[in-house]
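Quick illustration, no need to memorize.
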Amino acid sequence: MARFLLGVLFAIVGAKLIAGSWGDPLHHLPSAIGEFERDLRLMLALSLLAFVGLVVHYAIPLRRNTLLLVIGYGFYLGLRLATVNFLPVERLASAARLSVLLQFAWNATAVIWIIGLWSRVPTWLPEIPIEIDYDRASQHTVRAFEELRHHVVDSWRSS
């Protein structure tokens, strides 16, 4: 359902781009591309907010790495959305200060991600019984697929 909804939203944004550049494509192209980027970034922001809403609603525990990935990308996406929304496309290309600001935002996001992904803690082992059962079932599935692959390869080679 969610995949279908995202597909419909992408189709709407694409149709809006095509409709915006229909009459005189070369005249409207810079503004149509700017609007397209703004719409896609807005969809990304809404998707990120929906993800955070689902995490909060279902009380899903997030570890530090996932939390900082969401925070870092949210920071960059928010800053990029603000610049795309408040400045016309013609000024975006020529604004040197804005370019420095966006480069700083990207670097800050990368630093947040590095901090989030740098871990001195050993790999987390599941303690909840259902997660132990899932790990066991996952290992059995992997072994079963390996055996199936070997049988298929052996039968293919013998024929």
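The chain has a mean pLDDT of 81.
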